[in-house]
Amino acid sequence: MAPDTFHHRRHGLDRPAYDRPASIRRWAWVCIAAQVLFVLSWLVAAAWQGPRYSILAHSISDMYAVTAPGGMVLVIVLTICGAATMWFTLRSAWPVLRPGGWTATVGCALLALSVLGLGDLLSPFERLACRAADPGCTAARAMSNSGGKLDDTLTSAGVLLLVLAGFFLAAAMRRVPGWQRWAWPARGTAVLIFALIMADAQFGGTAPLVGSGLSGLVERLLAAAAAGAVAALAIGILRPDNGSFSRSERANQSAAAVFPALFEPGSPSADPAATVRPAPSSATVSPDHSAASSLPREDTEPADLCSRNTERKPRL
């Protein structure tokens, strides 16, 4: 048994979701709540940004800039969501996908360092100097402070790490029982996020092209798709059919609980290698053993021996 498989079985991670350690399921629920809160935060925060702010043209980062009204509210929410995503990755996603090998380790590390993990966690240090909606604020002025530079660096690198995490986790899912059918959707989601990154770059990112007016919309679609992907991973961990045991193995476990005598060591049911061998046909019986095989056996005699002659006469 491989070391990762031994760890997986020893700590109960090979069980269905309803029978896994409580901490794994708990952090999966926390992650789902964090992604919902993340999306709701920047949807609601747009309501108090003033008439000059546009959700189609302006970025999410503008809503927690230094000059943004109520910016600290969004900073606190994003920091909590980032911490929850990182902790979910380390305490829930990685233990479950660990049998997938080194790709699971790399994928979970990239997810923790991505824009939804470390990027959101460092939101207090990523505040732009001003909003694009403020009079006289340009892209150069918005990124003139350390917060603007850090936001530009972590956001640009963080979304690329998120795409790479999707591909690595998809490769790990192919090796983990119960997760194989999630591999292709994970790859497809990574491709979708990368396409949205290219679209956001095309529309100008934090400095939208004149007349385009869609940079903010594309960024929100990108953020929603990323949050949905992480939430889907948490939902997959909670699903009861995503355990390391196959359906037939879980059926055998249920039968063993009801009929323990049939699954005791040494019994045919407990040993998968113990199969019933069919009796050889008459065409395959050796001529030398045909006479011996025609003799009656004592273990095939009926229980009532009184109706038959117990003495057997030798065959002539």
Write the layout of secondary structure elements.
Elements: H1 3-10, H2 22-45, H3 71-97, H4 102-113, H5 115-121, H6 139-142, H7 146-173, H8 183-202, H9 215-238, H10 247-258, H11 290-294
Helix pairs in contact: 2-3, 2-9, 3-4, 3-5, 3-9, 4-7, 5-7, 7-8, 8-9
| Strand-residue proportion | under 5%
Low-confidence stretches: 1-18, 205-212, 271-276, 282-287, 289-296, 298-303
- Roughly how much helix do the residues carry, as a percent range? 40-55%
Number of strands: 0
Number of domains as seen in the coordinates: 1
Number of separate helices: 11
Radius of gyration, CA atoms, in whole angstroms: 32 Å
| Element-by-element helix/strand order | HHHHHHHHHHH
SS content category: mainly alpha
| CA distance, first residue to last residue | 60 Å
Indicate the overall shape.
Answer: elongated
Calculate the mean pLDDT score and round it: 78
Quick one: biggest sheet? none
